[in-house]
Amino acid sequence: MMRKKLLLSITAVMLALGMKAQLSPIILGDSHVMLRMSQSSRYLLLPVQETEDIAAIAVLDGQNNMVQRLNVKLAIDRVDYWVPYDLKGARLMDIEFHGDRRQKGAVGEFVCWREMKFSDTFDTTNRERFRPLYHHTPLYGWMNDPNGMFYKDGVWHLYYQYNPYGSQWENMHWGHSISKDLVHWEAQPIALEPDWLGSIFSGSCVTAGDEVIAIYTSAGHHQTQSLAFSKDGGRTFSKYSGNPVLTGDVPDFRDPNPFWNEDIKMWNMILAAGQEMRIYSSKDMKEWKYESSFGKEYGNHSGVWECPDLFKLEGKDGEDAKWVLICNINPGGPFGGSATQYFVGQFDGHKFTCESMPKVTKWMDYGKDHYATVSFYNAPENRRVVLAWMSNWQYANQVPTKQFRSANSIPRDLGLFRCGEETYVSVVPSKEMLAARGEKLKKPTEACEIVVDTKGQTEIVLSNTKGEQVTMVYDAAAQTFSMDRTASGEVGFSEAFPVTTVAPTFGQIRQLRIFVDRCSIEAFDAEGKMAMTNLVFPSEPYSTINVKGGKATIYEIK
Ligand code: FRU
C-alpha cells in the first residue's frame, strides 16, 4: 500500500514538473495497440512525426462506446511536435498503425509511447519564424479553406477547414476565429467536429434573424450536405436532427453556399458537383429543389470545381449590376495547381447565364497561393469582402512550417471593371488594410506595405543579406505584372514552388500596393485590375528594396 502511494506521488511530482509519464501500450499485433487512459489530466499530448503514415485511433468511453475517431501520424522514431487530445470521458484508445513500419515486434519500440504526455495545459505560444504577423493563422494545426464567413453585430466570423491533430490535412473540423477589424483575429473554440455522417468539409453560414445557420458537407462514405444551428451568434452550433438535408449522385458533391435571394424571396444555394456548379432553391434551408447546373464547357476544366460563391455586384459609373459566380479549381490554375476562376453574367433565381464566350477564362488572382476564395455573408455597406486560403494543393502539406500550416490572404473587396468587350472582377485590399497602416519606414521589414507609384516600366527587387530575392516587374508595354520567386529563399520542398507568375494588367498601373508578411507577398494594382498572391520563405526577412522606374513608400502594418 505504502509503495503504491509512493509511486503515485512520484508520478504526480513527475507530471507537475512536466516530465513524461510512461504509457504502457497493450500490444495486440504488429500494427494493433491499446492504451488505457487512467489519468485525470485534461489532455493527452500526442507526438507527431509528419513523414509517417497515419495511425487510426478509436477512442472509447468507460462503457466501451466509441466516442471519437481520429487519424494521427504518431511518432515512430522522431518527434516533430505534439498535438493535444482533449480526454473528456476517454478511457481507452484503440490504435491501428498503417504504413510499412509494421514489422514483427517493432510496434512496442515506437517512440510515441515514451513521448506521450498527460497535461492540463497545451502551450500555443508561437514557435514559427514564418508565422505571419497580420494575416490570420490557426494557433496550431492545419488549416485550408475559409468556411462559413459572416458579419454580425460588428464582428467578422471566420471558420476554416481545420485539423487539430497535426499540421497536415486530415480529420476535418471547422475551426473558428473572430475579428472586429478584419485584420486582427482572435482564436475561438472549435465550432464543428466530425460525426458519424463524416468529417466536416467546407460550407457556409447565413444569418437569419438572431440565428446563424451553417450548411456544410458531411464527408463520409459519400458527400452529403448537413445543417447546424447557432443561437449564440456563431460561437456554438447544434447539428440538425434531419441531416443530411441534400444528397447527390456524384462522388465530388460539396461546399454548399446559400444566400437569401430577395428577388424570388427564397434561399438559393450553389454547390460544386464534379466539374459543374449546381443551383438549388429552398423556403426553409431544409428542403432543397434542384434548379439548374452551370459550367459545362465554360472556363477552365483541368481540375475539380470546388468552393463556389454566387452574388450580385453593383456596376461602376452607371453600368448595370452583374452576377458573379466564383469557381475555385484544383488543379488547373494558370501556374499549376489551385486557383480561383470566376464567371460574370446574370442570375434569375433559377439559372446562371454567363455573358462571355465559353472559352473565356477569368482568374481572380494570378499568384500561385490564392485558393478557396469565398465571401462574407451579410457584410456591411453592401460590400463583397473575400478571403482566400493562401496556399496551393501542390505543396500545401510540405511548406516549411510545423506548429501550424497555412494562413489566409488579407481581406479584399470586390467590384467590377470593364476592359474591351469583357467585364472583370476588380480586387482591392479592404479599407481595413489602410486603417492598419502605421509609421512610414525607411526599409522594408518582415511585415509591411510597400506602395510603389509607377511611371510606366517598373522593376522592384526585394532582397536580404543572404542574396535571396523576389523580383517584380510591371511591363507597361506588354501590360503585364510578374513576380519571380525562384531565388526567394527556401524553394526546394516542392518542384512546383520555384516559379515566376505573370498577370495581365488590363491597362496601365499607376500605383502598386505590395503586402509583405514573413512568408507571403500580395501585390495589387491599387485600382483593382490585378492581384497576385505568392508565398515566399526567405531565411531572413527582405530588408532592401531597389526600385527602377517608380517611387516606393513603405509603411509598417500595426
Ligand atoms: C478545397 C477542398 C473542398 C473541401 C475541402 C476539404 O480545398 O477540397 O472542396 O470541402 O477542401 O478539406
Task: Give a structural overview.
This protein has 558 residues and is mainly β. The chain has 3 domains: 2-119, no CATH class; 141-429, 5 Propeller (Tachylectin-2, Chain A); 436-557, Exo-inulinase, domain 1 (Jelly Rolls), CATH 2.60.120.560. Helices cover 4% and strands 48% of the residues. The protein is built from 3 helices and 39 strands. The strands form 8 sheets. Strands 31, 32, 33, 34, 35, 36, 37, 38 and 39 form a 9-stranded antiparallel beta sheet that branches. The longest helix has 15 residues, at 2-16. Beta-D-fructofuranose (FRU) is lined by residues 144-145, 161, 172, 201-202, 217, 254-255, 306-307, 372.
Structure summary, number of beta strands? 39
In the CATH scheme, the class of the largest domain would be Mainly Beta
Assign a percent range to the helix content. Answer: under 10%
- List the uncertain runs: 1-20
User: What's the mean pLDDT score?
Assistant: 95
Fourth-tier CATH superfamily name of the largest domain: Glycosyl hydrolase domain, family 43
Number of helices: 3
Which structural class best describes the helix and strand composition? mainly beta
Number of domains: 3
What is the straight-line distance between the termini?
A: 60 Å
Shape: globular
Oligomer: single chain
The Cα radius of gyration reads 25 Å
Task: Assess the beta-strand content as a share of residues.
Answer: over 45%
What small molecules accompany the polymer chains?
Answer: beta-D-fructofuranose
Biggest β-sheet description: 9 strands, antiparallel
Could you say what the CATH architecture of the largest domain is? 5 Propeller
